Structures are given as structure tokens and as C-alpha cells.
């Protein structure tokens, strides 16, 4: 029987900045329908690892495979169109455009309508309706005409998630989606991720500091430390392991401690 | 009808709407309301510059590209028509061929500059365009066998556009309907069509991608848009519009030389007009070009009148002497940029427009 290749995998993925190895030979496979949490102390290389996968950074060595196909040579736009969608840790939106427009542009990217020079953007109803659908899922339907810059931090984080949903990509990468959100806003985003996960058709990668979140959402945890993958496995086992207690929970800030115990 | 013409992108301010109506009506009726050679020449210049400035706004205001090669495309369009009319007898065929060749060459050069230079940082792109534009200016001045060198080219235009042509015998509303009037309306209609086309482009899905790239190119890439490709396409589209503006100017002036088409001082004028009018609005081009060209053409006359009126007073006549018009023009622009950093259109929309409305 021929086994299907994993949706996404990295093989000995490495990046060096001068003498510093930020991501060190990380090999890992991500299967369809699973949610993998990536944890590790600040500076462990989690976001850099994400940047290597989604193409914002080019690796010094190693490969990134999407459906078994080598995408290491492709830039960020091509990887996005091949199915790697990314939400950013530091909010990364189009500040002077409206909430609707931010998402509509992502929908348009998904539907390859960027080179339509003659129809009116306001008349492409199907794109707008899709954008509104993703905005309703993130609870932003009442802020359609506000500029992204004018939103509260929490709403900007939700918009970031809506933009990712609009890409409808196979791989969804969330980089601390709830960072800086107020306590009552967090459940909406977590429920949304849970909902996508329950569908079991997407492959989700999640960088998250809060251990209770990781415990409840993740199928699997991988631990990065000094750029290297040091532990991998089921959430409870990994969190309980010595290496995590020592490398992560022992040295990390209050965010990690809050969820522990 | 109006909705489709304006691509659902309205002025969004009563004062701005009024201003635009006055400008468009003034230009439409210019031959009858402001008779005479000088006013008509000013009106024609405004029409051409509206197109040129709007096409530059496509780059600077919508896509966030700083280019100094815009007069190059304008010049290529003008020289296309000029060379064709210089080489062949004045016919519409020659005009069409010259326009088409100029358009094709301008677009090809824009494509090359875009493909080679838009991958690099913005400042290098600006430098590359400056270098190419300067090189072409020198080339046009030195190839005197072909381009007439510094003296430029003087040529005849098709009979329909020449002053000797009469549309009707006698006068209409006190104006003789000669070839100049026909030329003017050709310019006016072509400029109107081009501006509306650009308004359409900036409000298309493509135009929205350009704005996204201006706002956050990094994010646009992460969504799957190859920014270099879109920036190049914007450069080519802007070059095409600029070349057509040049072709119109060549038809109007019956003269094309390096100083009137390729010079960097025109480039700086375009930059000023975009900034004064308001970047990323297209309407800003209409307002900016009108204000600037009027100021450039009439400030001197106004100052002469002021100097005459204050003749008996100390110091004042010297200050407002017509010889100092450039000083006052400069002061006016420093003040306008200082007080209206978002341009006249941005200022008017900020007051009368809906808050939080999308830009562009």
C-alpha cells in the first residue's frame, strides 16, 4: 500500500544568522486533520521556523515539502498559493484599508482575481460575501467599514485570523493568535480554531505560550529549544517530560507558568 | 450612468464635488467662456496634465512607487507622434502609427525597468528611473538628425486640427469654430476618457491589490500576491497613460522638444501636482493639475496687476514685482504642502467626507 505523504514536512530545516543557528536541523511531519502546537521559551526559534515554512525567510539548509513536493525554492507568494496560510504574531494588516477590504483582498488572492483590471471590486459580490462570511465567524461583522488601524488590539488579532481563514489554505499557521487579547476575547478565537480542527480537513500549526490552551487544543506538541527540536509527542506526556519542565517551563515567563498546574 | 462612469468612486465631499464640477465645466466650455489663444492653451495644458498627473498618482499614490521616469514615457508618446508627422505627410494614419509606436515603446521600457528594478528597494528603483530618464533626455538632445536636438521638431497636423480648418462658416457664440477648437475638444474628450479609465482601474480588484501593496507589501506577499509583478503592471499601465498624454500634447502644440516633454523640471511639476492635489485619489490629479497650471500661467499677470496697484507704496511693489513670481509660486507650494499634507482632496474629504471611508 502506498501511504499518502504528510501534508507538510520539514527535513533538517536550518537557518543561520552569521554564527547563530536560529533553527537547527528541524525535521518534522504534519498530518492532515491534526493540530500541532509548537512550544518553547522566547527565542527558541518558533517564529523563525514558521517563517521558513511560509517562505518569509529562506533556509540555509534543509527542505520544506508540501504534499511531498519540494517548495524550498519558492518564495512566500507561491507558497501561499500552494496552500500554506499564515497569521502573524505581530499584527500584520493593511492599516489604512477597511476591515472588509483587508479580508476581501485575501479572498481575492484565493480566487486568483488580482489581475482583473476592469470589473469593479465593489461589484464582485461573490468575493464580498465570502469576506463577510469570514468576518462573521470572527465576530467583526459590525466593524466592516472601520479602518484596520482604528480597531482595538483584540479586534486586530481577530482580523488577522479572518484574513487567514479567507485564504482557505490547506495548512493554517497561527503564531500566538491570542497574544495581547483581553480575557473575554480569547475564547472566540480558540473556539474558532477548535471548529476548524473538528472539521479534520486542515492541517494546523499553532505557536502558543498558554499551556492550558495547548493542552485542550493540540493533538501533538513539539518543543523547540535553542532552535532544535528537543521533544515531540502527545500533549500530556510532553508537558510532563523532564526536558520540557527544564527547558521551557523552568525558564519561560509568567505566560507559561499561568497555565501550568 | 454616472455611477458606472465614476466607478462608484465618488468625490465624497460636497465642496470637492462643487470644485470638480467647476473645473470640468470650465474646461468643457473654455473656448467659449475664455476666448483667446492664451486661455485655450492653458486649458489644453490642464487637460493633458490631468492625465499625466493621474497616471503618476497610479504609481505614487496607489502603489507607493517613487519613479522619476514619468516624463520619459510622456516624452516617448510625444516624440512618437512628432516623428511620425515629421517623416510623413500630415494624416490620421501617421498620427495613429506614431501614437501606437510611442505607446508600445513606452510600455516596453516600463516593463523592462519594472522587471529589472522593482525587485530591489524603493530607493534604488527611484535611482534607476532617474538614470534612465536623464540618459534619454541627453539622447533626445544629441540625436539631432532624428529628433531635431535641442531645437525639437515642428510639424504639421492633419487638416481637421489645423487653424485653417473651419467646422462651420461664421461664428458660434462669438467664436470661430476652427481646427484649434476641434483639437481642443479632441484633447478634452481623450483626457476625460483616460481619467475615467484610470478611475476604473484603481477601483478594480487589481487596483485594490496595488493599494494593499502600498499599505503592506510584506503582507500582500504572504497572501500570495507577487508584488514585483503587480508593481511592474502598474508601471506599465501608468507609462501607457503618460505616453498617450504626450501624444495629445504633441498634437496640440505642433512642436515637440526635449524641454517641453522630457525635462526633469516637468517631472518635479508632476510630483508637486500630485502632492498638492492629494495622493491616491485620482481626483487629486484633476484639482492639482488645474491649480498648478493656472498658478504657473497667471501668477505673473496677477502680480503685475498687484505691482501696478501698489506703485506708490514703499517696498510692496518690489515684493510683488512680476519678476519674483517663481519665489511666490514656491512660497505658495511650501504653504500648501505644510497646511494640507494630504493634499486639497484629502483635506476636503477629511472635513466633508464620511469618517473611516476607504481611501481611493
UniProtKB/TrEMBL annotation, chain A:
Domain ABC transporter stretches: 8-251
Keywords tagged on the record: ATP-binding, Nucleotide-binding, Transport
InterPro entries associated with the record: AAA+_ATPase (IPR003593), ABC_AA/LPS_Transport (IPR051120), ABC_transporter-like_ATP-bd (IPR003439), ABC_transporter-like_CS (IPR017871), P-loop_NTPase (IPR027417)
SMART domains named in the record: AAA
GO MF terms held by the record: ATP binding; ATP hydrolysis activity
GO CC entries: plasma membrane
Any single Pfam family the record assigns to this protein: ABC_tran
Protein name per the record: Amino acid/amide ABC transporter ATP-binding protein 1, HAAT family
Organism: Tistlia consotensis USBA 355
Automatic annotation (TrEMBL), chain B:
GO MF assignments: branched-chain amino acid transmembrane transporter activity
UniProt-listed PANTHER family: ABC TRANSPORTER ATP-BINDING PROTEIN, HIGH-AFFINITY BRANCHED-CHAIN AMINO ACID TRANSPORT SYSTEM PERMEASE
Highest taxon of source: Bacteria
Chain coiled-coil ranges: none
Keywords for this protein: Cell membrane, Membrane, Transmembrane, Transmembrane helix
Locations listed in the record: Cell membrane
GO annotation, cellular component aspect: plasma membrane
Topological type in the membrane: Multi-pass membrane protein
Transmembrane feature ranges: 15-34, 94-116, 123-143, 182-202, 228-252, 264-294, 301-319, 325-345
InterPro entries for the chain: ABC_transp_permease, LivM-like
Protein name: Amino acid/amide ABC transporter membrane protein 2, HAAT family
Lineage: Bacteria, Pseudomonadati, Pseudomonadota, Alphaproteobacteria, Rhodospirillales
Principal localisation: membrane
Amino acid at each position: 500500500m502506498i501511504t499518502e505523504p504528510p501534508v507538510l514536512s520539514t527535513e533538517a530545516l536550518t537557518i543561520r544568522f552569521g554564527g547563530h543557528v536560529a533553527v537547527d536541523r528541524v525535521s518534522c511531519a504534519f498530518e492532515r486533520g491534526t493540530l500541532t502546537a509548537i512550544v518553547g521559551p522566547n527565542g527558541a526559534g518558533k517564529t523563525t521556523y514558521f517563517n521558513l515554512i511560509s517562505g518569509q525567510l529562506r533556509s540555509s539548509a534543509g527542505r520544506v515539502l508540501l504534499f511531498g513536493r519540494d517548495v524550498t525554492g519558492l518564495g512566500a507568494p507561491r507558497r501561499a498559493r500552494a496552500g500554506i496560510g499564515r497569521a502573524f504574531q505581530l499584527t500584520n494588516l493593511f492599516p489604512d484599508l477597511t476591515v472588509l477590504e483587508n479580508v476581501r483582498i485575501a479572498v481575492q488572492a484565493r480566487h486568483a482575481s488580482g489581475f482583473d483590471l476592469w470589473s469593479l471590486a465593489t461589484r464582485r459580490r461573490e468575493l464580498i460575501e465570502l469576506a463577510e462570511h469570514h468576518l462573521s465567524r470572527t465576530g467583526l461583522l459590525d466593524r466592516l467599514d472601520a479602518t484596520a488601524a482604528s480597531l482595538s488590539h483584540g479586534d486586530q488579532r481577530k482580523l488577522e485570523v479572518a484574513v487567514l481563514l479567507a485564504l482557505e489554505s490547506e495548512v493554517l499557521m497561527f503564531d500566538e493568535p491570542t497574544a495581547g487579547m483581553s480575557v473575554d476575547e480569547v475564547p472566540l478565537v480558540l473556539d474558532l480554531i477548535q471548529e476548524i480542527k473538528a472539521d479534520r480537513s486542515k492541517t494546523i500549526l499553532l505557536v502558543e505560550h498558554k499551556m492550558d490552551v495547548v493542552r485542550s487544543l493540540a493533538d501533538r506538541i513539539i518543543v523547540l529549544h535553542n532552535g532544535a527540536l528537543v521533544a515531540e509527542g502527545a500533549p500530556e506526556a510532553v508537558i510532563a517530560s523532564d526536558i520540557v519542565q527544564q527547558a521551557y517551563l523552568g525558564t519561560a515567563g509568567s505566560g507559561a507558568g499561568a497555565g501550568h498546574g | 450612468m454616472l455611477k458606472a462612469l465614476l466607478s462608484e468612486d465618488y468625490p465624497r465631499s460636497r465642496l470637492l464635488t462643487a470644485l470638480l464640477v467647476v473645473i470640468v465645466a470650465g474646461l468643457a466650455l473654455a473656448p467659449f467662456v475664455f476666448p483667446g489663444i492664451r486661455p485655450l492653451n492653458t486649458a489644453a495644458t490642464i487637460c493633458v496634465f490631468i492625465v499625466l498627473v493621474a497616471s503618476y498618482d497610479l504609481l505614487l499614490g496607489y502603489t507607493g512607487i517613487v519613479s522619476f521616469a514619468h516624463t520619459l514615457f510622456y516624452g516617448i508618446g510625444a516624440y512618437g507622434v512628432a516623428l511620425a508627422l515629421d517623416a510623413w505627410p500630415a494624416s490620421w494614419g501617421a498620427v495613429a502609427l506614431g501614437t501606437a509606436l510611442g505607446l508600445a515603446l513606452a510600455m516596453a521600457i516600463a516593463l523592462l525597468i519594472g522587471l529589472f528594478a522593482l525587485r530591489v528597494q524603493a530607493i534604488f528603483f527611484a535611482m534607476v528611473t532617474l538614470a534612465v530618464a536623464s540618459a534619454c533626455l541627453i539622447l533626445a538632445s544629441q540625436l539631432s538628425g532624428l529628433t531635431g536636438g535641442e531645437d525639437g521638431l515642428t510639424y504639421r497636423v492633419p487638416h481637421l486640427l489645423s487653424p485653417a480648418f473651419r467646422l462651420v462658416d461664421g461664428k458660434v457664440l462669438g467664436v470661430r469654430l476652427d481646427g484649434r477648437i476641434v483639437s481642443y475638444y479632441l484633447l478634452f474628450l481623450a483626457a476625460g476618457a483616460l481619467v475615467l479609465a484610470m478611475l476604473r482601474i484603481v477601483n478594480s480588484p487589481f487596483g485594490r491589490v496595488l493599494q494593499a501593496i502600498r499599505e503592506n507589501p510584506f503582507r500582500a506577499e504572504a497572501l500570495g500576491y507577487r508584488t514585483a509583478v503587480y508593481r511592474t503592471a502598474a508601471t506599465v499601465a501608468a507609462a501607457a497613460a503618460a505616453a498617450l498624454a504626450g501624444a495629445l500634447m504633441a498634437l496640440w502644440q505642433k512642436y515637440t522638444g526635449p524641454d517641453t516633454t522630457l525635462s526633469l523640471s516637468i517631472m518635479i511639476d508632476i510630483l508637486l501636482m500630485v502632492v498638492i492635489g492629494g495622493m491616491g485619489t485620482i481626483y487629486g490629479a484633476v484639482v492639482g493639475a488645474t491649480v498648478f497650471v493656472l498658478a504657473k500661467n497667471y501668477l505673473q499677470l496677477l502680480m503685475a496687476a498687484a505691482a501696478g496697484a501698489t506703485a506708490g507704496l514703499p517696498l510692496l511693489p518690489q515684493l510683488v514685482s512680476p519678476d519674483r513670481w517663481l519665489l511666490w509660486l514656491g512660497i505658495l507650494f511650501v504653504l500648501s504642502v505644510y497646511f494640507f499634507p494630504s493634499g486639497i482632496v484629502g483635506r476636503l474629504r477629511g472635513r466633508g467626507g464620511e469618517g473611516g471611508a476607504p481611501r481611493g
